[in-house]
Amino acid sequence: MTKVIKIGIIGSGGIAVSHAKAYQAMADVQIVGVADVVPGKAQEFINNLAIEDAQAFENHKQMLDLDIDGVSICTPNIFHHMTSIDALQAGKHVLVEKPLAVTLDQGIEMVQVAKKTGKMLSVGFQPRYDPNMQKVTNIVQSGQLGDIYYVEVGGGRRRGMPGGTFINKALAGVGAMGDIGTYSLDLALNALGHPKPLTVSAYTSNHFGKNPIYHPEADKFEVEDFGVAMIRLEGGMVLNFKISWAMHMDTLGPTIFLGKDAGLKLMPAGSGPWSGVWDGGIGSISMFHDVDSHQTETAIPLQVHDINIFDAKVRDFVVAIKEDKPAPIPGEEILINQAIIDGIFRSSEKGKEVDIHIPVL
User: Fold this and answer.
1) Which residue blocks in 3-103 are alpha helix, DSSP H?
2) DSSP letters along 232-296, please?
């Protein structure tokens, strides 16, 4: 008999809908509980998605008393830390949406608790499941580019600022960095094999979010809508990172990997004012190299696919639970991402370069 994996969902906002639908499409998964602090919201979520036999809770700790194998954390960013730790300590595997946490210290504690409890802490970076994103990682790690010394990553929307909880510092903690910037960092860091960051010099601002011409909730806008950073990585590499929710420009340029033997240029997929960032697929891949002393540009063919990368992320989490596998996207990897974001805010606030320290866990 096929083992049925029992799942709970904490937080019932928009991203929780995507998690629930992914679970509902799996015959070997049952959603048994949904928790949300807003009275009636969890039950409304269950009713709207017709989740049979699921119980609604206002207190996620009560839900964790159920017979549950794994939990999706779909709360506002600021609650990722607390709810993940509660779930891990209750003996549940955790799939937490990005960003891992709001601060580096929170992320460190989450990873430590996962290790102590022996439960999985996986982080929701669905672009890793795009075959073309995987192709980029394979090219970079194959050595075809030679020793890599410089990477430029990030993207920008001409207009694409969210509202609500995304711009409330008490709930989101961070803005564009945690929303779309974290995807860009994962693209680079995952391809490079997660080298440790050493220092960062950064600048952040929110000129567009605070301007009522560009945002209807300008008086409530409390986070950054733009950031840029120069990050020194171990191994002599430098990472130039930039991200923007809004700007007077069509693009912040391609993502590039410069190696001693070849270079790689990537453009994101999609079009329109909300495109131009690395939260989805790849639009083009080009390699720049010399062939018989001739400077050559080679277009890398894209793989056409119909993979729903979000569903693939959720499915991988379920499979890892069933087969007792390690976390598909372990918190330890994303801790490097979190350390860079933490350093960016410290550097921006101080107006100078700062060191980055990640303890051995």
Assistant:
1) 14-24, 41-48, 60-63, 80-89
2) EETTTEEEEEEEESB-SSS-S--EEEEESSEEEEEEES--STT-SSSSS-EEEEEEEEEETTEEE
Nearest residue to 180 (alpha-carbon basis) of 271, 269, 278? 278
Contact 174, 77 (CB under 8 A): yes
Q: Which residues pair with 287 in a beta bridge?
A: 264, 298
For strands 55-57 and 294-300, give the pairing: unpaired
Q: How far apart are CA 244 and CA 242, in angstroms?
A: 7
The CA–CA distances, whole Å, from 77 to 221, 232, 341 equal: 16, 27, 14
| pLDDT tens-digit series, residues 195-212 | 999 999 999 999 999 999
Beta strand 93-97 with 70-73: parallel, antiparallel or unpaired?
A: parallel
**Residues 227, 246: contact at Cβ < 8 Å?**
no
Task: Give 14's contacts (C-beta < 8 A, 6+ positions apart).
Answer: none
Q: Select from 222, 108, 211, 124 the least CA-distant residue to 174.
A: 222
The span from the CA of 318 to the CA of 4, in Å, is 10
Residue with tokens 């269950």: 46
Cβ within 8 Å of residue 48, ≥6 positions away: none
Q: Which long-range contacts (CB under 8 A, 24 or more apart) does 53-57 make?
A: 57/33
For 50, counting Cβ atoms within 10 Å of its Cβ (0-12 exposed, 13-18 middle, 19+ buried), the class is: exposed
- Separation of alpha carbons 21 and 18, rounded Å: 5
| CA angle in degrees (0–180, nearest 5) for 98-356-339 | 5
pLDDT reading at 255 higher than 80: yes
What does the alpha-carbon distance between residue 295 and residue 275 come to, in Å, rounded to a whole number? 31
Strand partners, 55: 33
Q: In the beta sheet, which residues pair with residue 270? A: none
For range 279-300, the mean pLDDT: 95
